[in-house]
């Protein structure tokens, strides 16, 4: 029985060809023509003016936060329902993260609570320099409320779109919302460079400064001169070649993720106590999500199966699945951080699981997953 992974990289002969071309061209060093082209192609796809290819989404967040003024004595608001990589870079800058809870329907940051948090902190005299949104599992946050609310308060947005390339909100691509936005090309993402990320912005200055910091803050003189601390964060030309190959196949991979989600929706329809994260039609349709990971939420009053039991059943059939992100305000590493909570992210953590969603999965593999889900959830009632 072959193992079914959660989100395995989807690579073909196209990737092989791009990589071979890059090696044969001699541009094996960091930087090179594939890096420049990759930046231009991603910027065009997302509809932003400038892009900086970096070694990870985490490094992109770090530089984006620095550029927005995060540092000792400042506060950055971060959604609690996310992967720790959203919050860790706030600590790298010396700023203090303050966490804000989620909306029930899709787990994205609760815009009302976000504004309440900012107003409360500012009234207390805190220096809030930025607020982060996360487009969770490939579904955009509620920008119709977030963008004007932040504008009113004069707080810049940093959009963590690490999981969301290809998603959109009312026609505007994920990654186009913040003063700065971040993508990840980690191996488990909708497209990959094996490891990599991108910082996006319409501000030429912001990207130029981040570019300078990403190459050890080298001064433009004929000797090695440094007046600030920099980082070694650039993406290599080989990995950018891999990214360009993936981008050339992106529309197909996106369509496949969406089709997989639809198979789960149809396959599990009628099963009481099971709902899909981000499919609450009262909130918004799901046709703009990139469906990076399809997540289900179990109602314990109906199914009597816990996420842990379901994950174990799937693992017994060589199928990988995971709990949803454990909220940041429950993480030991952030125990001292302040949080504005409403109980929603804790409930999603208690009840949700992510299902295998990689674009290379075959229909018969999704059927295998559905079979286990249906038999486990049916037996439990
Ligand atoms: C929401 C979120 N933010 C940030 C990151 C960090 O990206 P990377 O792994 O490329 O550093 C990830 C993924 O790993 C993520 O899921």
Largest sheet, spatial ordering of strands: 1-9-8-5-4-2-3-13
**Proportion of β residues?**
5-15%
The termini sit apart by 28 Å
Structural class based on helices, strands and sheet pairing: alpha/beta
Q: What characteristic shape results from the CA principal axes? A: globular
Compute the number of strand runs.
Answer: 14
The largest sheet, given as strand count, sense and whether it forms a barrel, is:
8 strands, mixed
Keywords:
39% helix, 14 strands, alpha/beta, 8-stranded mixed beta sheet, globular, 15% strand, 4-stranded antiparallel beta sheet, 381 residues, 13 helices, binds pyridoxal-5'-phosphate
Describe the structure.
The protein is α/β, with parallel strands linked by helices and 381 residues long. Helices cover 39% and strands 15% of the residues. The chain is built from 13 helices and 14 strands. Strands 1-9-8-5-4-2-3-13 form an eight-stranded mixed sheet, with helices on both faces. α6 links the parallel β4 (128-134) and β5 (157-160). α1 runs antiparallel to α8 (237-248), α2 runs parallel beside α8 and α9 runs parallel beside α13 (363-379). It is globular, with a radius of gyration of 21 Å. The mean pLDDT is 95. It binds pyridoxal-5'-phosphate (PLP).
């Amino acid at each position: 029985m072959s193992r079914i992974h959660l989100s395995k990289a989807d690579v073909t002969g196209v990737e092989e060809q791009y990589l071979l071309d890059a090696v044969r061209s001699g541009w094996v060093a960091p930087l090179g023509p594939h890096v420049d082209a990759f930046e231009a192609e991603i910027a065009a796809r997302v509809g932003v003016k400038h892009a900086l290819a970096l070694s990870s989404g985490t490094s992109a967040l770090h530089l984006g936060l620095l550029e927005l003024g995060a540092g000792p004595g400042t506060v950055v608001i971060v959604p609690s329902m996310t992967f720790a990589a959203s919050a860790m870079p706030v600590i790298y800058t010396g700023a203090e993260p303050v966490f804000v809870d989620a909306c029930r329907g899709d787990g994205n940051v609760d815009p009302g609570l976000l504004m309440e948090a900012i107003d409360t902190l500012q009234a207390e005299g805190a220096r809030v320099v930025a607020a982060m949104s996360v487009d969770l599992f490939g579904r955009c946050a509620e920008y119709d409320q977030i963008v004007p609310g932040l504008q009113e308060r004069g707080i810049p947005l940093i959009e963590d779109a690490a999981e969301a390339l290809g998603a959109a909100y009312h026609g505007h691509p994920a990654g186009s919302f913040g003063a700065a936005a971040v993508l990840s090309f980690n191996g488990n993402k909708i497209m990959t460079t094996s490891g990599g990320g991108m910082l996006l912005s319409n501000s030429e200055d912001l990207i130029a400064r981040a570019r300078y910091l990403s190459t050890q803050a080298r001064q433009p003189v004929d000797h090695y001169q440094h007046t600030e601390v920099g980082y070694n964060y650039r993406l290599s030309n080989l990995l950018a070649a891999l990214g360009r190959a993936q981008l050339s196949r992106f529309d197909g991979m996106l369509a496949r993720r969406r089709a997989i989600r639809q198979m789960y929706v149809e396959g599990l329809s009628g099963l009481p106590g099971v709902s899909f994260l981000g499919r609450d039609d009262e909130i918004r349709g799901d046709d703009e999500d990139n469906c990076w990971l399809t997540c289900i939420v179990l109602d314990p009053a109906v199914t009597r199966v816990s996420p842990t039991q379901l994950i174990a059943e799937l693992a017994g059939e060589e199928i990988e699945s995971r709990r949803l992100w454990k909220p940041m305000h429950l993480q030991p590493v952030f125990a001292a951080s302040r949080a504005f909570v409403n109980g929603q992210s804790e409930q999603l953590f208690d009840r949700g699981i992510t299902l295998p969603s990689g674009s290379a999965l075959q229909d018969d593999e999704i059927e295998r997953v559905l079979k286990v889900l249906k038999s486990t959830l049916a037996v439990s009632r």
